[in-house]
Amino acid sequence: MTNGVHTDIVLPLKNELKDWTSFVNPADTKSGNTIANYVAFGWGDKGFYLETPTWEDLKFQTAFKALFFLSSTAMHVTFYKKLHENESCRKICITKMSYKMLTNYIESSFEKNGDFTKLIKGAAYSDNDLFYEAKGTYNLFRTCNTWANSGLKSANLKACLWTPFDKGIFYQYNN
Q1: Residue 119: is it exposed, middle or buried by C-beta count within 10 angstroms (0-12/13-18/19+)?
Q2: 86 backbone φψ class: left, alpha, beta (φ>0; ψ -120 to 50)
Q3: How many CA atoms lie within 13 A of 84 on its CB side?
Q4: In which region does residue 32 sit, left (phi positive, over 0), alpha (psi from -120 to 50) or beta (all else)?
Q5: Quick check: 70 and 63 in contact, CB under 8 A?
Q6: CB distance 66 to 162 below 8 Å
Q7: pLDDT of 128
Q8: Using CA atoms, how far apart are residues 76 and 78, in angstroms rounded to an integer?
Q9: Which DSSP helix (H) or strand (E) runs through 130?
Q10: Sign of dihedral through CA atoms 37, 134, 112, 151?
């Protein structure tokens, strides 16, 4: 899924292979709504996520820190009841083995305190999303889209050699 700039990886919230609610729970959102069927994961620069809710809010200092290894990262998690396939949201059918590799990749991107993910208290864009501490450093060469692309690679799925933008990933899945 893309918003035109940033790519998220969206998975079923629960299936026979993985129940994400023990890891990231929609009950923890402002809405407390637990009827979600899908969960979207987006890794990125923490300062950018938390200080730039819209492009109009972008500050030079935030962008500079993000591009040049000077800040930490966060995982943006959004819960959806339903999704529609379109040019911004592509369905990819994968094997059970690829699914397990992808979920392992996503899970390993979270900063944890023991078995629990580190929730960033009070941080959200809407009633159905949350932010968590993440591992890694965002920079000019490792963007939200290279994170998503690397996730596809980790699961042996079609991916770009490297892509800082969402277009490269979506090009791989043109129908």
Answers
A1: middle
A2: beta
A3: 2
A4: left
A5: no
A6: no
A7: 96
A8: 7
A9: strand 129-134
A10: positive
Q: Which residue has the tokens 């009950």?
A: 27
Residue 82: both structure tokens together: 């339903």
Parallel, antiparallel or unpaired: strands 129-134 and 73-80: antiparallel
What does the alpha-carbon distance between residue 91 and residue 109 come to, in Å, rounded to a whole number? Answer: 22
Residue type, 16: E
Residues 6+ apart with CB under 8 A from 161: none
The encoded tokens of residue 23 equal 């890891």
Q: What is the DSSP string of 4-61?
A: SS-B-EEEESB-SS-BGGGTS-GGGSSS------EEEEEEEEHHHHHH-SSGGG--HH
d(CA 18, CA 45): 27
CA distance 152 to 20: 19
Instruction: For 20-29, write each residue's pLDDT tens digit.
Output: 998 999 999 9
Q: What is the pLDDT of residues 153-162, one digit of tens each?
A: 999 999 998 8
Determine phi and psi for 151, rounding to 5 degrees.
-65, -45
